[in-house]
Every structure is written in structure tokens, then in C-alpha cells.
Amino acid sequence: MTDTIKTDVLIIGAGPCGLFAVFELGLLDMKVHLVDILDKLGGQCAELYPEKPIYDIPAIPMVTGQGLTDALMEQIKPFNPTFHLNEMVETIEKIGDPLFRVTTDAGQVFETKVVVISAGGGSFQPKRPPVPGIEAYEGTSVFYAVRKMEQFRGKDLLIVGGGDSALDWVLNLQPIARRVTLLHRRDDFRAAPHSVDQMRKLVAAGKMNLKLGQVTALEGENGMLSGAMVKGNDNETFKIDCNTMLPFFGLTMKLGPVANWGVKLENNLVPVDTEAFETNVPGIFAIGDINTYPGKLKLILSGFHEGALMAQKASRYVFPDKRVVFQYTTSSSSLQKKLGVN
């Protein structure tokens, strides 16, 4: 067993909301450790769409998921948070007032005065298409997410699906792939109309293929795809030559051990108050997509706001005898000193 780590705040989830919470907690002198089940920082942004543009971060007209993660990491540098990646929190036990003992599946034990659940919607996993033997190709020629577009340069690419993810990657990868074929079970798409229009123009210009039907079998050896057998809407079977496939059948949310942490749940979400985004357990907060309250919007900017108010209440648990004085980073010399700009 490793030694117990003592900290002011433990954040579960290192996505954008968890990262920005480090900043708000740091301004109030709280030391933070973060645990994330992924092997990288940035949560869903980095895992599912690292190169996909995000357009609704205030004052930043466009940023990628990875770009936002990088910027947040730069912003929280002054506070030196400690990250524990590839670990999943298994238990949270109340051992004081306020004090929690938190254990992970790696055997790490934390003692912390405040716990912040910033776990997105839990653990998101792509839905696997019902194609026999697809597991043999996963990670070599079948991928459920695009992490680096360059990986698909010059490929004969089959993209399966009819939602935003499928259409987005058709449009993003068509310029660099050798050939792109989009396969959907019907000629009707759930994606943004503009994306569908762009896709149809590429098809009309002969720059990509659109096929209707469903994959029934894969062909290839040693994990390397050579083609996909498809049952068309006319019940005829045909083959699509491809060496890479991207199936976008949506995501399955697995709540994981959150259900065992002693906090109240409501439709697989954590209800919180809107004063400090605290759960039914004093000292345990929930910010970002994992929480729910009247009027909740699942936006990154909403999670940033929730983190700021959470930090104000958290400081009362960590420093019960200290009066919290609200200050602005623009005018407070003490805050600027913490940020290294004074």
C-alpha cells in the first residue's frame, strides 16, 4: 500500500471543469489533487474530440478540445496541482467533520476535507457495432474516436453513422484520406443540416461515396481491415473496400462507482443546490455534466461558473476560521502574486 496522501481538496475528473476548479480553489489557497480514469488530461474534450472545434467558450471564438485543455493547464500552473491518471475512485468514506477517506482502484488512499465530483457523465464508452469479430480489428484498423487526424492520411476510410460525429469527421477527414465512404442505414441524417449539405456536395462532385445499408461482416487478417460486407436497404449484399473504419454509433454512459459514494442520485445524475453546487453530503460537491438542478445547461461555461461558486463554499470547510474576502484578479495584488504576475 502507498502512503496516505493528505490534501485540502480532491477533484474526481480532470476535464475542463475540474481543471478550472483548480484555478478557483488555488486563488483561495487550497491545495488540490485530481484523479481521472483516463490516461490523459482534458476529459471528454481530449478523449473524444481533441481536434474538433469548440465555439462557445467566452472570448475565444474557436478552440479545439486539446487547445482548451492546454490553455487551462497553463492557467493553473501557479497552483501546482497533482494528477493521478489511469485511476478510478472506488470508495468515499466520511471519517471526520470535515474529512473524507478516498480510495482508488490502484490502491491509493487520500484524506481530504473536500471532494469535488467533476466526472462528466460518468465513464463514457463508445457503443460497439453488432458486427461479428470486430474486436480483432479495434485499435489497429477500427477506431471509435479520432485522436490525431494525421493517422488517417492516405487511408481508404469507411465512416459508419448518421449523427454529428460521423458527418463532422467525414468533412474533416475527406481532404486528407485517400477515399472516404459514408455508410448509413438510411438516407436521412441526424446531423446539423449544414454538415449534411456539405457532405452531399462532396458526393455530387465525386469526391466521396455515400452508401446505404449496414455492415454485416469484416474482412482482413491480423487486425488489418481489407473490406466490409454490407447488407443494402434492398437486401442485396455488397462489399466496400476499406483499410480503416470509424463507427459512430453513439456513446454509452456508465456511471461506474459514483452510485456507491453515498451521494444522492437522480436519473444517474447528482442533484446539487445552486448556491454552491453541494450534494446532499456536506463537503462533497458536484460540478459540470455530472450534476443536475433546475435550469441546468450542459455547457463547459456553466461548469466554470459552478466551479467558482463551489470554491467559495469549499474554503469554509478547509479554513473554517478564515474570513473569505472576495477579490478580483484584475485589482488584487495578493491574487496577482499567487498567479506570478506581480
TrEMBL record:
CC cofactor: FAD
Keyword annotations of the record: FAD, Flavoprotein, NADP, Oxidoreductase
Cofactor: how bound: Binds 1 FAD per subunit.
Catalytic activity, as annotated: 2 reduced [2Fe-2S]-[ferredoxin] + NADP(+) + H(+) = 2 oxidized [2Fe-2S]-[ferredoxin] + NADPH
InterPro entries reported in the protein's UniProt record: FAD/NAD-bd_sf (IPR036188), FAD/NAD-binding_dom (IPR023753), Fd--NADP_Rdtase_type_2 (IPR022890), Ferredoxin-NADP_redctase_2 (IPR050097)
Ranges of residues in domain FAD/NAD(P)-binding: 8-294
Amino-acid positions noted as binding FAD in the UniProt annotation, renumbered to this chain: C17, D36, Q44, Y49, V89, F124, D289, T330
Enzyme Commission (EC) number: 1.18.1.2
GO molecular function: ferredoxin-NADP+ reductase activity; flavin adenine dinucleotide binding; NADP binding
Subunit annotation: Homodimer.
Family label: Belongs to the ferredoxin--NADP reductase type 2 family.
Record-given protein name: Ferredoxin--NADP reductase
Species this chain originates from: Afipia broomeae ATCC 49717
